Amino acid sequence: MPTLQETIKLLQAHKTDHPTANKAELEQAFITVCKARKERSVFVAEGFAMRFCEANKPSFSNAVLSLSAVKKYDKNPLVICIVRPGRLDFRLVNTTFLKKISHSSHNLTVDNIKGSFLGHDILDEYEGVANRPEHFEALLTTHNDFEWEENLARLVEATNGIVGRSMRFDVTEEAREHLLEAPARAEAAAQTKDYQQVALQLSAQVERNRTALLQAAALNNVNIRGNTIEQIITGDVNGHRLDDLAFELSNKMKLNIDVKTKLLDRASAPKAYNIDKMLAFLSKPDSVSCLLFIGLDSKQQEVKTQMVSIFDATIVKATCIQVLWAGRLSRGVTQLSGDLSKIFTADYRPKVDIKGGQALLENFLKR
After folding, report:
1. Quick one: which of 272, 278, 253 has its CA closest to 330?
2. Cα–Cα distance, 345 to 353 (Å, whole number)
3. Which residues, other chains included, contact 79 with Cβ-Cβ below 8 Å and sequence gap of 6+?
4. What are the angstrom distances between the C-alpha of 144 and each of 96, 163, 212, 294?
5. In the chain, what is the straight-line distance between the N-terminal and C-terminal CA atoms, in Å?
6. Is the distance from CB of 28 to CB of 55 less than 8 angstroms?
7. 3-state secondary structure of 59
8. Which residues of 234-256 are buried (b: 16+ CB within 10 A; e: fewer)?
9. Mean pLDDT lowest for which of 31-45, 171-185, 195-209, 256-270?
10. Where are the beta strands (DSSP E) in the chain?
11. pTM (two decimals)
C-alpha cells in the first residue's frame, strides 16, 4: 500500500491529469489507490485517514469533522484534502493542529466531547512550521508527543473559556526545597554503580534488539514507529506516563527513565516531559529522572544509545518550554530543540549542570 506522502503525490498527479476532477472523483481515486474503506465521512487507509472537502473560494470555512471523529483517528495521521478548482491542498487536522472547536460546541467539556471544527480552525502553521505535506513528518513527530487529554483540555479552553481539569502542581516550601536539590541528586546518582549498571543494562538491551529496532525505524507512520520502538525496549504497552522504565537504586533512590527515539538522519524537536508531572515527581527527596535516547538510522544500519539526566548540560541547553498549548492551569510541556547528535558520539560523557538545572527549575516554578 502507498504511504501517506506517496498517496498525496498520486492524488496531485490525478488532479493535474484531470483538472476538473471534483471531490467525488478524488474520493474514488483514493479508494482505488489505497484500497481504503469509508467510515462515514472519513476514508481510512493503512496507517492514516483522509477527509475530502470542496472549496471554490480562496477562504475555507466549511465544517470539516466532529471532535468525536477526530478522537477516533487522532493516533494516526489525519489529513484533509481540500479540492479546489485548480489544485489540491492538504493539511493535518489532528488535535495538535486545531485552534478550537466551532460548530455546536457550547456544551463542550473534557467530559462531554461535542462540536465540530471548521476550515478556519485548522492551523496553517505550527511553531513556525507550515502545515504542508513536505513538513508532515516533523509535525507528526510533535503531535505524537502530545496526549489526547492535553489537546482536549486546550481545545475546551480555547473554545468556550471553560477551565479544564487542573493538572497544575501546587508547590509547597518543602517541595521547592526538594526540587532545587534535584540536579545535585542527579549528579550523585550518576556516580553510583547501580546507576551505571542500569545504563549498561539498557545499552545491552538495545543492542540485543538491534534488528527489531532498525525494522521499526523504517516504518513510515511516525506514531506506529515511536510506539513500536518504545514497546521493544519496555516490553509493555505505551502508557503515556512520565516514565517508561523505573528502577530503585541501592540507596533507595527512585530512577525514572523516559525512552526517546532519535532518527539520526532527520532533524526533530521531540517533546521531553510535562512540566507539572515532572515537578511533582522531583519534589520527592528520593527522585531522579533520566532520558534514554535511542539513535537509529535504518539506511546506514546504525543503532546508538545514550542515557542522560534531564539536567545534563546538553539537555538543559536544548530544553525549551512549549507555550502554544499551555493552558491556563498548566505550566505546559518541554521540547528539546537544536542539534542533539553530539550525545551519540563515542567520546560524549554525560555531565549534570547543577546551576543550569536549578535555573531551569526556577523558570518552571515562575510559570
Report:
1. 278
2. 19
3. 4, 8, 48, 49, 50, 51, 90, 91, 92, 93, 136
4. 9, 24, 21, 17
5. 47
6. no
7. coil
8. beeeeeeebbbbebebeeebbbb
9. 256-270
10. 37-39, 42-45, 48-54, 63-66, 78-83, 88-92, 116-118, 125-126, 129-130, 245-248, 254-263, 271-274, 287-297, 302-309, 319-322, 333-336
11. 0.66
Amino acid of residue 137: E
Structure-block grid coordinates of residue 355: 546551576
Q: Hey, where are the domains in the chain?
A: 4-160, 173-366
**Cα–Cα distance, 14 to 56 (Å, whole number):** 19
CA angle 290–295–199, rounded 5-degree value: 40
Distance CA 92, CA 94 (A): 6
Query: Above 50 in pLDDT, residue 238?
Result: no
DSSP string, 278-346: HHHHHTSTTEEEEEEEEEEETTTTEEEEEEEETTBHHHHHHEEEE-TT--TT---EEEE-S--GGGGST
Neighbouring residues of 182: CB distance < 8 A, sequence distance ≥ 6 = 282, 287, 288, 289, 311, 357, 361
Does residue 240 contact residue 273 with C-beta atoms inside 8 Å? no
Dist CA 139 CA 147 (whole Å): 15
Span 205-219, pLDDT tens digits: 999 999 999 999 888
Residue 58 above 90 pLDDT?
A: no
Contact 114, 105 (CB under 8 A): yes
Q: What's the pLDDT score for residue 265?
A: 82
Which of helix, strand or coil describes residue 65? strand
| Grid coordinates given for 244 | 517508561
Q: Cell numbers at residue 63, please?
A: 465544517
Distance CA 280, CA 313 (A): 22
Beta bridge partners of 130: 125
Which residues, 6 or more positions from 317, have their beta carbon under 8 angstroms from its beta carbon?
338, 356
Average pLDDT score over residue span 141-147: 82
User: pLDDT for 88-125, tens place per residue?
Assistant: 999 999 999 999 998 555 678 888 888 999 999 999 99
CA distance 53 to 97: 17
- How far is residue 214's CA from residue 220's CA, in Å, rounded to a whole number? 12
DSSP state of 98: B
